[in-house]
């Protein structure tokens, strides 16, 4: 829970209190356990691979592997309605915390924006715009169109659908982790039991062949929860012995409130990894994604720390950008005056844009109104705004050269013509 704790500590330090609106719907996930995937499980049960996959008996040969993730932010044509990019790292950190100690680490490879006539996704369609091979493609939409409210849905291996609604990617929302569970083969904890198609006994006697078929997740009939106390309120009993259900409120793959869910079980994590190595190997890498840390300036305390963007913004800090460092100061994200020699103009922009355009950046918080830009003129070989003896000496020093600042008249040779041009322009540049 390292990243969650860091974000919370920053918020408390600054006196910021964030409360996310909870999605208290019973069917926020549109992922259904398909007959195709059930058949796949049955085949694995028969050959023994399901037991290996769910009991941590298969080899983990390669150590830590990284799941490179592409977030597709679907927006309106004018660029509005898109997910805040900081939410992507927030959810990646949540998922890594839920899998903490495991052999998979998720990271962001790409964030791609799609400005569309209609960014709404209609369930159960599978968006494919801008699909990036070799990564887990997650499509973030302003709204999922369905007969009832959905937060997201994902396909079981080997298919690649992964859709999440923007407002379900907020602080304290674990839809992304839940759908990632499906993407890597985890059923709902109540699958087979809720609808009575293959109910699991509370005593676990049929746990490997019924319910979610994972033996360290208690039988779950999805009967209901107290959203304030995380207490199961369903009151259901199993069909095996009439034993009351006691499902776990902590399991990410249940429909317990997000505020209650904190983990995947050990056997779920084992299956997660097995499916990654067996069916999702094309998105695994031995190399991690580039760092997304940056300098965060805390005005109240005058401090600077290097953290994720969402952690900085959640704490009310000033984000300096990915790849920035505290040692470079806290004005890295400020605009300043940029002097452009070619057009003899001054504009106020960020330093990287100024330098990329061949301008001279005067520093953070400088303004063009101060008229600090110094533009040269013909004969001003050193660009100091004056045509004087220094420029004459430049011409003499470069005499006979075919290029350089001494070639004042640009005829390809530094000679007497350039000397005369300096003399003709003598004085302060206009």
- How would you characterize the largest beta sheet? 6 strands, mixed
Name given to the CATH architecture of the domain at 2-186 and 264-285: 3-Layer(aba) Sandwich
CATH superfamily (homologous) name of the domain at 2-186 and 264-285: Collagenase (Catalytic Domain)
Strand content: 15-25%
Shape: elongated
Low-pLDDT regions: 1-24
Q: What letter string, H or E per element, gives the SSE order?
A: HHHEHEEEEEEHHEEEHEEEHEEHHE
CATH topology call of the domain at 2-186 and 264-285: Collagenase (Catalytic Domain)
Q: Fraction of residues in helices?
A: 10-25%
Radius of gyration: 30 Å
Secondary-structure-based class equals alpha/beta
Q: How many runs of DSSP E, i.e. beta strands?
A: 16
Mean pLDDT: 88
Q: What report would you give on this structure?
A:
The protein is α/β, with parallel strands linked by helices. Among the domains are: 2-186 and 264-285, Collagenase (Catalytic Domain) (3-Layer(aba) Sandwich), CATH 3.40.390; 336-370, no CATH class; 386-428, Type 1 dockerin domain, CATH 1.10.1330. It has ten helices and 16 strands. The strands form five sheets. Strands 1, 2, 4, 6, 7 and 8 form a six-stranded mixed β-sheet that branches. Helix 9 packs antiparallel against helix 10 (416-424). The longest helix has 14 residues, at 266-279. The chain is elongated, with a radius of gyration of 30 Å.
């Amino acid at each position: 829970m390292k990243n969650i704790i860091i974000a919370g500590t920053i918020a408390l330090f600054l006196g910021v209190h964030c409360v996310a609106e909870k999605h208290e719907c019973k069917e926020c996930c549109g992922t259904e356990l398909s007959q195709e995937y059930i058949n796949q499980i049955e085949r694995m049960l028969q050959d023994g691979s399901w037991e290996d996959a769910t009991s941590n008996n298969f080899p983990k040969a390669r150590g830590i592997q990284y799941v490179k993730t592409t977030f597709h932010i679907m927006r309106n044509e004018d660029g509005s309605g898109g997910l805040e990019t900081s939410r992507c790292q927030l959810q990646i950190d949540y998922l890594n915390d839920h899998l903490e100690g495991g052999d998979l680490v998720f990271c962001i490879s790409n964030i791609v924006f799609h400005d569309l006539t209609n960014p709404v996704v209609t369930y159960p369609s599978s968006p494919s715009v801008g699909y990036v091979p070799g990564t887990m493609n997650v499509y973030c939409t302003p709204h999922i169109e369905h007969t009832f409210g959905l937060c997201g849905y994902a396909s079981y291996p080997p298919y690649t659908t992964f859709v999440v609604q923007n407002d379900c990617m907020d602080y304290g929302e674990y839809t992304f982790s839940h759908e990632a569970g499906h993407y890597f083969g985890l059923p709902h904890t109540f699958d087979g039991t809720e609808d009575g198609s293959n109910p699991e006994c509370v005593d676990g006697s049929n746990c490997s062949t019924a319910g979610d078929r994972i033996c360290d997740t208690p039988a779950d009939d999805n009967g209901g929860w107290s959203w304030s106390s995380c207490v199961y309120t369903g009151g259901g009993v199993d069909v095996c012995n009439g034993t009351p259900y006691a499902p776990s409120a902590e399991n990410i793959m249940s429909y317990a409130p997000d505020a209650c869910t904190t983990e995947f079980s050990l056997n779920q994590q084992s299956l997660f990894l097995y499916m990654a190595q067996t069916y999702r190997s094309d998105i695994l890498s031995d190399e991690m994604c580039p760092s997304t840390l940056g300098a965060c300036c805390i005005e109240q305390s005058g401090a600077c720390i290097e953290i994720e963007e969402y952690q900085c913004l959640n704490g009310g800090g000033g984000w300096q950008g990915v790849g920035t460092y505290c040692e470079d100061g806290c004005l890295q994200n400020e605009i300043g005056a940029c002097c452009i020699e070619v057009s003899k103009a001054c504009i106020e922009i960020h330093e990287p844009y100024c330098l990329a355009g061949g301008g001279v950046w005067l520093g953070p918080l400088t303004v063009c109104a101060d008229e600090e830009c110094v533009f040269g003129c013909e004969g001003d070989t050193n660009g100091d705004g004056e045509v004087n003896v220094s420029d004459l000496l430049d011409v003499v020093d470069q005499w006979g050269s075919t290029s350089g600042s001494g070639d004042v008249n640009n005829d390809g040779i530094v000679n007497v013509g350039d000397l005369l041009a300096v003399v003709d322009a003598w004085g302060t540049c206009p």
